[in-house]
Specification:
Chain A: It is a multi-pass membrane protein. Chain A: InterPro entries: Peripherin/rom-1, Peripherin/rom-1_CS, Peripherin_LEL, Tetraspanin/Peripherin, Tetraspanin_EC2_sf. The complex is a heterodimer of chains A (about 350) and B (about 350). Chain A is mostly helical. Chain A is built from nine helices and two strands. Helices cover about 60% and strands about 0% of the residues of chain A. Helices cover about 60% and strands about 0% of the residues of chain B. Chain B contains eight helices and two strands, in the order E-H-H-H-H-H-H-H-E-H. Classes of the chains: A mainly alpha (about 350), B mainly alpha (about 350). At the A-B interface, helix 6 of A face helix 5 of B.
Chain lengths: ~350, ~350
């Protein structure tokens, strides 16, 4: 009892071949899209690798690039086979390759599933990398004269402006770090000396934030210094002031950005898996329909098509039996060797 | 003596028709490109219309949109005619329209060239609109509680950040206006009263700029207030400090942005004009080669194709004669009527 058998006549076979050819070309376009998304994701990670301590994992974008190219190749081949399937002479040369091709497609689907899973799971790794990286970025903000770190200030300022965020968890992270280089502090000044001595590590800490934390939507000019001192500014209460600086932390902002990219890619991959499965089913039907023609010389005869030659249970049973015989053959060979030796 | 005469046999005619059909489809895509460029330019003008006093001229993008649509239509029709030209029965129904269509194409090409010229010239009125608009924009920066102007601060801040510029001509423009709203000034403080009293208009002026003028590439945290006072900051000299705030004025930044856009669009329109002229000439060749078949029944016969039936001079004199005869025709009519009137 074949699994999901369908009767085919010439018209149905031709329609199946044409429809399948179109679906295969759609799959090639989807493969190109996956490849492009992989490259885009890789570029985005590279752009912000300074915020992630330069040790972010490029596994997901590399895998996407590989999967996209494989999809293009496999689907283009499948489309060629479909195109030739209506001509018996051309189809004869593809026939022997079809069984391994279908097995390869199965393996490819498994790889796609793994990639989709990774897209959803690697977000945790990105979150942890961002937390570490941003903490270091804020620490190195003032080192504009240290080679290798001199662009950290610019990168962090541009990130805070672009993502509308301030600090790691929130703006108070800037209160705990010295973000003004010692080159611009007058160490002979009493005020500076007081501040530097007021903490254990001898850092110049203040309740201020850099200008890139300012919110342009605020109705009043930006208050960046003496943020917690209500009397330093006219008509200012730091507890109820909402629009002055960005209240969101950059870790949250960056994570939201990357996780939305990864989620969209994951959903697209699941769609690709469904499309590939449809391709495989169609190709299986086409090959079985062309194999079981009652009269190979007459193209107009009827034929049957199916997904599996026997039922699902029987096919699984056969597979297990095959694997057992493989194991048993090894044992028999050993047994023969032993008496001889 | 025809202008640029070429002999055609069947093969050459078929090749010509196929090539011109192909080129017509390119021209349709070029028309779509012109349409989308007009749309893009219109959207960019709308986005920043607050900074241009809301009276920027939308003439050029509207013209581009119109020309793009007309180009699509004309080229699609031309492509259809080329496609049918290989089949004599189908071509017969298009033949009478062709002369008029070719005249239309020539007029359209002239209009395209004019559009390209406008793209390069309209920079000048844009300069004036920007200068006016930015000056008002900066004046209304502090009016965040006035309905209709409450978003000017945000727009101006975002623009200065995005275009990396400060003020109208340069950052000193901010020194000449009050950009802090009175709501946030403590009028009982002596310092505030001094500043307001120090100028005729009673404005709170200071040598400070908004935060959006700050340059992130500066190695030191941004200095926005008391910019001309060297002693207010350690190791600071405002004459030599280069990277602190953006040095460029926003008028130049926006003008170079829009100017670059208009130049690119102008160059593309010139290229599209050249393509249109090429397809018009191709269609004229097809038309003339199909009209001069030696043996109309035999498709394989030879024929000739040209751009103009006579030389340029003769065609020109022909046109002048036609216009004169049209003028004379009306004169003769009037004379005839007068004679009839006198007779009767």
């Amino acid at each position: 009892m074949a699994f999901m058998p369908v009767k085919f006549n010439l018209q149905k076979r031709v329609k199946l071949a044409q429809g399948l050819w179109m679906i295969y070309w759609l799959s090639v376009i989807v493969g190109i899209l996956l490849f492009g998304l992989g490259i885009f994701f890789k570029i985005e990670l590279r752009k912000r690798s300074e915020m992630m301590d330069n040790n972010e994992s490029h596994l997901v974008p590399n895998l996407l690039i590989l999967v996209g190219s494989l999809a293009c190749g496999l689907n283009a081949f499948g489309g060629k086979v479909c195109h030739d399937s209506l001509d018996p002479i051309k189809f004869a040369k593809w026939k022997p390759m079809l069984k391994p091709f279908l097995l390869l497609c199965c393996g490819f689907n498994a790889l796609l599933l793994l990639t989709a899973l990774l897209c959803f799971l690697m977000q945790f790794a990105v979150y942890l990398t961002l937390a570490e990286g941003l903490k270091n970025s804020i620490k190195f903000y003032k080192d504009t004269d240290t080679p290798g770190r001199c662009f950290m200030k610019r990168t962090l300022d541009m990130t805070q402006i672009e993502f509308r965020c301030c600090g790691n968890n929130n703006f108070r992270d800037w209160f705990e770090v010295q973000w003004i280089s010692n080159r611009y502090l007058d160490m002979s000044n009493d005020l500076v000396k007081d501040r530097v001595l007021s903490n254990v590590e001898g850092k110049y800490l203040m309740d201020s934030v850099p200008f890139s934390c300012c919110n342009p939507g605020s109705p009043r000019p930006c208050i960046q210094h003496h943020l917690t001192n209500n009397s330093a500014h006219y008509d200012y209460d730091h507890r109820i002031e909402e629009l002055n600086i960005w209240t969101r932390g950059c870790r949250e902002a960056l994570f939201y950005y990357f996780s939305s990219i990864m989620n969209s890619i994951g959903v697209l991959i699941i769609g690709t898996i469904i499309l590939e499965s449809v391709d495989m089913a169609g190709l299986k039907y086409l090959t079985t329909a062309l194999d079981t023609m009652e009269d190979p010389e007459n193209p107009e005869c009827e034929s049957d098509g199916w997904l599996l030659e026997k039922g699902v249970k029987e096919t699984m049973g056969e597979l297990f039996a095959k694997m057992k015989t493989l194991g048993k053959t090894n044992q028999v060979v050993e047994g023969e060797d032993a008496p001889e030796g | 003596m025809a202008l640029m005469l070429v002999k055609f046999d069947l093969k050459k005619r078929v090749k010509l028709a196929q090539t011109v059909w192909f080129m017509y489809w390119f021209a349709v895509m070029a028309g779509v490109l012109v349409f989308s460029m007009g749309l893009f330019f219109k959207i960019e003008l709308r986005k920043r219309s607050e900074l241009m006093d809301n009276n920027e001229s939308h003439f050029l993008p509207n013209l581009l949109i119109f020309m793009g649509l007309v180009a699509c239509g004309i080229n699609a029709f031309g492509g259809k005619v080329c496609y049918d030209s290989l089949d004599p029965s189908k071509f017969v129904k298009w033949k009478p329209m062709l002369k008029g269509f070719l005249f239309c194409c020539m007029g359209f090409n002239a209009l395209l060239l004019l559009t390209a010229l406008l793209c390069f010239i309209m920079r000048i009125p844009l300069q004036f609109t920007l200068a006016e608009g930015l000056k008002s924009g900066m004046r209304y920066y502090k009016d965040t509680d006035t309905p209709g102007r409450c978003y000017m601060k945000r727009t101006l801040d975002l623009m200065q950040i995005e275009f990396r510029c400060c003020g109208n001509e340069n950052y000193r423009d901010w020194f000449e206006i009050q950009w802090v709203s009175n709501r946030y000034l403590d009028f009982s403080a002596k310092e505030v009263k001094d500043r307001i009293g120090s100028n005729v208009d009673g404005q709170y002026l200071m040598d400070g700029v908004p935060f959006s003028c700050c340059n992130p590439s500066s190695p030191r945290p941004c200095i926005q207030h008391q910019m001309t006072n060297n002693s207010a900051y350690y190791s600071y000299d405002h004459y030599t400090e280069e990277l602190n705030v953006w040095k460029r004025g926003c008028r130049y930044a926006m003008l170079s942005y829009y100017g670059g856009m208009m130049n690119t669009i102008g160059v593309l329109v010139v290229l599209v004009t050249m393509l249109e002229v090429a397809v018009t000439i191709g269609l004229q060749y097809i038309d003339s080669s199909l009209s001069t078949l030696v043996n109309p029944e035999d498709p394989e016969s030879e024929s000739e194709g040209w751009i103009l039936e006579k030389t340029v001079k003769e065609t020109f004199t022909d046109i002048m004669d036609k216009m004169k005869s049209m003028g004379k025709g009306t004169k003769v009519e009037e004379g005839g009527q007068a004679a009839v009137a006198t007779v009767s």
